[in-house]
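Worked problem 6 (solution included).
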Amino acid sequence: MATIFSRIVAGEIPSYKVAENEQFYAFLDINPLAKGHTLVIPKREVDYIFDLEDEEIAAMHVFAKKVAKAIKAAFPCIKVGEAVLGLEVPHAHIHLVPMQSEKDMLFTNPKLKLTPEEFKEIAEKITKEI
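Solution. The predicted structure is:
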């Protein structure tokens, strides 16, 4: 059975797309820690990020770097943090979170509640910077 992320890539489940190429897809996290919190995933379904081929994991990070730079331009912050957890969805993914402090990367923090309009506006703001 396809993961929720594979279904998002296939267009079966809507998402707020930020960037895409042949191999990777970036979209807003629907339970964000901060405005601009984005997920980067390989289109190929792989559960564990370290099961990706060396070339894939390198290319995924280069893709994530472009997205992170766009996030930082759209949502001024000290840095964009990167986290790989991978326990909640069995599909490799990188979290990119705009940070003002390290506390902004605590996944136990309350998540933002945003409207569809706010998500759309955030995605457009980041996409414009890519």
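Discussion: The longest strand covers residues 94-99.
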